[in-house]
Each structure stands twice: as C-alpha cells, then as structure tokens.
Amino acid sequence: MAVEKKSVEVKTKVKKDTSKKKVESSKKKSSPAKKINSKKSEVTSKKKKTVKTSEEVIIKQIPKEEKEEIILPKNNLRYYLLLIIVLLLGLIYLMIPKITVLGDKVVTMRYYEEYVESGYKGKWLFKNITPYIIVTSNLDNTKIGEYAINYQFKFGFFNLNKKRIIVVIDDVDPMIILESNTINICPNDMLPDIKYEAIDEYDGDITDRVIINTYEDKILLAVSDNSKNTTGEEITVDRTDRESPKIELKGRETMYLNVGSSYREPGYTATDKCDGDLTDKVEVSGDVSSSAGEYTKTYTVSDSAGNKSEVTRKIVVRNYNLYNSGSIGNGVIYLTFDDGPNEGTTNVILDILKDEGIKATFFVTCKGPDYLIKRIYDEGHTVALHTCSHDYSEVYASVDNYFNDLDRISDRVKRITGYDAKIIRFPGGSSNTVSRSYSYGIMSTLTGMVLDKGYRYFDWNVDSNDAGGAGSSSQVYNNVINGLSHSRSNVILMHDIKYTTRDALRDIIEYGKSEGYLFGKLENDTYMIRHSVNN
Ligand SMILES: [Zn+2]
Predict the structure, then answer these.
(1) Which of 345, 358, 384, 407 could form a disulfide with 519 if both were Cys (CB 3.0 to 4.6 A apart)?
(2) Which of 364, 362, 359 is nearest to 329 (CA)?
(3) How far is the CA of 338 from the centre of ligand 1 (A)?
(4) What is the pLDDT of residues 339-362, one digit of tens each?
(5) Mean pLDDT of all residues in the chain?
(6) Mean pLDDT confidence for 16-23
(7) DSSP state at residue 321
(8) For residue 390, how far is its CA from the centre of ligand 1 (angstroms)?
(9) CA of 18 to the centre of ligand 1 (A)
(10) Contact 466/503 with Cβ under 8 angstroms?
C-alpha cells in the first residue's frame, strides 16, 4: 500500500510538471532564446524518465475496480508524445540562431537627430554570432515618417530577421516673425496691415497658413505646421496718440529787420499725426517792435490728446544800413551788381533787397528794360555806370571811344531817372589787362581822367566769381562769405544777370546780418576801393 500511495503522489506530481512544462514551452516559443530554458528542459526530460517507471508500476498494481486508473495508460501516451514534441521543439529552438534587439523596439526621434543604435546580439548554439548580423535601414532623418532598422542573420537555410521601428517626427513649433509686438495707431484709425512671416523648420514658409484674429486692443496670430505643432503671437494695439503736433515755420527761424520796418509774419503750418492739419489752432504770442532789439515769437499748439508743441522765432531788429557812408566803413558790405539790368534776375534781386531792407549798387549797361533801371533808382539803390556796349574792343580802342561809351550809358540813366550818375566801374575793372590788346596804357590815362571829370570809380575786394568759375549758387555764396572781413569795407563783385547770384543772394544777406555786418550802397563820398592799374 505504501508503494501505491507513493506512486500516486508521483503521478500527481507528473501531472503538475507537464502542465507547467506546457506553459513554459509556449512561453519559450515566444521569448528570445536563453540558456536557462534549455537547461530547464533538460531537467524536465530527466524527471519524465522517472515518471515513466513509476507509471508502469502503477498500471500493474492498480486493482480492476479502480476505473479511473485504467484510463491512465492512454493519457500517458499522450504525455509521452507531448514530451517528445516539447523536447524536439526545445532542441529545434536551441538549434535556431537568435537575434536580440536591445533597447526600445520603437524609437521616436526628431528629424535631423542622429540615430544612435542601442545595440543587438546574436546567439547560435551558445556561440556569439553578433558580428555576422547584417544591419540595414531605410532611415532618412531629414524626412518625417516611419522607418525600420533590419537585423539579419543569413546562414545556409537560416534567414533570421529582426526589426526596430524608427519614427521620425517634427515636434518643433513653427515661428511667427513680426516687425514689432506693439503697434501704435491713432485712436480712431483702422488697424493697419501688419507684416508677418511664419516659418517652420521642417515645412518651410507657412505664412499663408497664419490665422489672424483682430480685436480692439490686440491682434492674435496663430499657425500650425503639418505635424500640428502650433505657435501663437500677440500684437498689442496701442491706440494712444503720444506724438506731438509738428509746427513748421515758413521763413527763417531768425529774422533780421531794419529799425523802423514792421514785422510781417511769414507764416507757419501745424500738422498732427492723428488730428491732421492744426494750423488754425496755433497760438502766436510775443510782440516785435520796430525799434532795435531782439524779440521772440512763440508758436504753440496742442492736439486733441493734449500733446503740446512749441517753437520760437527770433527777430533781431537793428540798423543794417550804413548811412554815414563817407567813412571807410569797416564791417560794411557793399553789394554791387554789374552788367544788368536783366529781366528774370534783376527784378528778383530787387525783391530780395526790398524784403531784406538792404540797399545795393547796380552798375548798369545799355542792355535790359528801362523799367528795371527806374525801379533800381526808385527803390533807393545806387544806379551806377558800367558801360553801354561792354565790348572791350570798342570801349578800350581809344580814350574818345571810352568816354563816348560812358556818355551813352550815362544818358540812358539820366533819361530814365533824371539822375546824373557819377559812380562808375570800368569794364573788367581798373586793373584789367584786356585793354592792352586795344590800347596800350589806356587804363592809366582813363583812371586819372575820370576822376578829373568828377567821376568816382570803384573796383572790388570780394569776388563772388559768378562770372568765372562759380557754377552754382552755393559756390557763389561761399566765395562771398569767405571773402568777408569785419576789419574793412567789403565791396562785393556780383552780376545781376546771373541766376546763381540771384539764388545765393538771400543767404548772403542773412549771413551778413547774422554776423553783424552792415549793408551800404556806394555813394559819391564812399571810400573808393580801387585796384592797381595794370595797363
Ligand atoms: Zn562787366
């Protein structure tokens, strides 16, 4: 009986073992090859042998009444078969080469990220076959998508493959590029067109996908790339008018007036970014008297947001004209104009002189309209005699010719103005050498003779060079102002037939006034600026 019991016990054990084995072997099939597994199956096969003998014993000793036990032999046969199959499978399993992919079987990485192989192992019949595994891949990390790394072992009829999946993704948010995150507009302005650009590192320019939502105080921009990475930007809309209006003065910021002349407002404009033209709202304060002194005009204006602007104009009132012209006149500017009059230039020059309250001297010829000579005279300038023809070959052919020419221009002036002009300027100046070609030594004769006849002749000590190399009004201006000196009288040679001179005159006068010069016209008792005679 004791034997029986024992064998029953063993039998149940066997049952348990086999069921265990079933599970294990099915596990083994799906799991990678391991040494332990093969060892285990060795152990179980040993056990089976033991069981076999005990079963035999049991069959013999089981009484006939025990029906249950009679069925056993059939079952046992099944177990044997199963065991054999398991054993064979185990063997086959051991015979099959195995590849183990280490690390994650599915790897997610960002495009352009470098793929790092986390390793693999190969085993076959306890041998390391890792070096014989061929790794291939279709991975392209520049493009998003799913790729595979293939691990292959090929030997004889074995063709073993394992795979690792690589998913290349774009998880980088696109960028919205704005000129600025705030815009300042006028309170009632429409929202301006905003400039923006949307760039995705992977998808490139996606500006056309930007979605814009506008609100009273902000503009929201959003964009998504192909991988649904989304970026948003906000532009703050500032509707505060912070800009002050602009006042622009017409005329000069500093004005020079002669004593006695009244101030005339040259005008101004005021504009505001948000309110537009505010000229009507400008308030002008400050009185300008006609007596000598410095005065200030203040112009102020405010826009509807309360931004205030103020500009000032300085007015200097003094006597710029030299009245006691008999003296040498240090620091005096004598503007002298030759070769006119001329329609288009002389009239403009007269306008400027009038406007500036300045007197000058015009050495006239027989050219130009009479009315301009009349105007020169009427407006208080000195009408002086230059030459009638201004033809050197005629004028300097002889002494008689010279005086004949001089009489002609003298008569013209007398006819127009009734004035007997006694101030003269030789064509080419008293220092001219051009007369040598026509009459040797004539200038020495003429300079003495004209004085004897009661004329006063004037040359110059500042040359604007407007009849020479000065081709622009700024050159004329520079030649004049660079030649000025406070320590002498300045007789400036200019030609009122020149447009450059006409255009430079205003600045020359303003410069002279700002530098404290006085202006004078040549008069019969004015100190003569004369050159040395060269013929
Ligand atoms: Zn001349």
Answers:
(1) 358
(2) 359
(3) 5
(4) 999 999 999 999 999 989 999 999
(5) 86
(6) 41
(7) B
(8) 7
(9) 137
(10) no
